[in-house]
Specification:
The chain is α+β, with helices and mostly antiparallel strands. It is built from ten helices and eight strands. It has helices at about 10-20, 40-50, 80-95, 135-150, 170-190, 195-200, 230-235, 240-250, 255, 280-290, and strands at about 1-10, 30-35, 60-70, 105-110, 115-125, 205-210, 220-225, 230. The strands form two sheets. The protein has a five-stranded antiparallel sheet, with helices on both faces. Helix 1 runs antiparallel to helix 2. The protein is elongated and about 75 Å long.
C-alpha cells in the first residue's frame, strides 16, 4: 500500500477525474464522502469551493491522494460491496491517522488498472476555516501506510525495484530501476566485499569509490551499468557505503587500499618512501590555498 500525495489548484477538474462514472474503463464509484453535496460532480466541486473561500489567499487548497494496493491484494478488494467497504475503511483510517479530520472529502474507486486503488480529494481548509497542516506529510504517510499494510494483512513488497511496474516508468527511470534491482540482487547473493564485487561483475556492473581528498578514506560508492550510473545511497539506503560496511562487517578500504606505486613524472602527487601520498603535505597545501583565497575588503562608509 502506497499513497501518492499531490497538491492541486482546481477542485472542478480533479472531481471530474476522480469521480468519472461515465468512463467505461475507470468505472469510478463513490466509496465515501463528507461535507459535500453529491448530486453530481458540479455540486461536489461547488461544495469544496464554498469552504475554500474562507481562506482566499490559499493558492492550492486542494489535496489529491492516490491510494494504491499491490496486485497481489486484488482478491482482498473484489468489485463488490465487501471490497469497496474494506477499501473505504482503510482510506478513512489513513485520513484519520494523517490528522485530516473535520474537513470535506470524497473517496472514489477506479477499476482501470491491475492493482486496486482509489482517489481521495479533500479540502485543506477545514470546516472551521483553519488550514490543515501538511508538515512532513510524505514521511508520515509512508510510516502510516506501512503500519496499515501490516495491520490489515496486506502484501508487503520485497525491497527490490523489479517489483515495480516498469512499463509505467520513463526510459531513464526504467534504467535506474534495473540498475537498482541488479545491485540489490548482488548484495543479497553476497556475504563479503569480494563476493559482492564478483556478483556485480556477473551483471556487468562497475563499482567506483569516492574518497576524501585529504584522508584518502572511502566515503561513497557509485554503480555503473552501460550509460546509467548512480550513487549507491541514491539508489537505496541499504546500498550506501556505510550500510554496506555494516552488512559485510568490513570496510572496503581494508581490501583495496594497498601501498601505491611510486609517482611517475606524469604526476601523482607527493609520496613518501613507501609509495603512499604524504597526507601531511597535502593538508598543508590545502590550508595554504584556503588562506590565499581573495577576501573582499569591507566597504568604507
Amino acid at each position: 500500500m502506497i499513497a501518492k500525495i499531490m497538491n492541486r489548484v482546481d477542485f472542478g477538474g480533479l472531481v471530474n477525474y476522480a469521480h468519472n462514472d461515465k468512463s467505461q474503463t475507470k468505472r469510478a464509484n463513490l466509496l465515501a464522502h463528507e461535507g459535500v453535496c453529491i448530486t453530481d460532480n458540479k455540486t461536489i466541486a461547488d461544495s469544496f469551493y464554498v469552504q475554500a473561500a474562507m481562506r482566499p489567499n490559499r493558492k492550492k487548497p486542494v489535496k489529491h491522494i492516490a491510494l494504491s494496493f499491490s496486485p497481489r491484494d486484488a482478491e482482498r478488494f473484489p468489485d463488490n460491496e465487501e471490497g469497496d467497504a474494506l477499501m473505504a475503511e482503510i482510506a478513512k483510517e489513513w485520513l484519520k491517522r494523517m490528522g485530516i479530520v473535520n474537513t470535506q472529502f470524497i473517496i472514489a474507486r477506479h477499476h482501470d488498472t491491475k492493482h486496486p486503488h482509489c482517489h481521495i480529494v479533500y479540502n485543506i481548509v477545514d470546516n472551521d476555516g483553519n488550514v490543515l497542516s501538511d508538515r512532513n506529510e510524505r514521511y508520515r504517510s509512508a510510516r502510516i501506510c506501512r503500519a496499515l499494510t501490516e495491520e490489515y494483512g496486506l502484501y508487503i513488497a520485497r525491497k527490490n525495484s523489479k517489483e515495480q511496474n516498469l512499463n509505467r516508468l520513463r526510459p531513464q527511470q526504467m534504467k535506474k530501476a534495473q540498475l537498482k534491482a541488479a545491485v540489490l540482487d548482488a548484495r543479497q547473493a553476497s556475504n563479503n566485499w569480494e563476493s559482492f564485487i564478483a556478483e556485480l561483475s556477473k551483471r556487468h556492473i562497475e563499482m567506483q569509490t569516492t574518497s576524501n581528498k585529504l584522508t584518502d578514506k572511502v566515503v561513497g560508492l557509485s554503480f555503473f551499468l552501460d550509460e546509467t550510473h548512480s550513487a549507491g545511497s541514491r539508489l537505496d539506503s541499504s546500498l550506501s557505503y556505510s550500510n554496506l560496511c555494516i552488512f559485510f562487517g568490513q570496510a572496503l578500504e581494508e581490501l583495496i587500499f594497498q601501498p601505491h606505486v611510486q609517482a611517475t613524472e606524469c604526476g601523482g602527487g607527493p609520496t613518501n618512501s613507501q609509495g603512499w601520498r604524504d597526507k601531511d603535505e597535502d593538508k598543508d597545501k590545502w590550508k595554504l590555498q584556503q588562506q590565499t583565497k581573495y577576501k573582499p575588503s569591507k566597504r568604507r562608509r
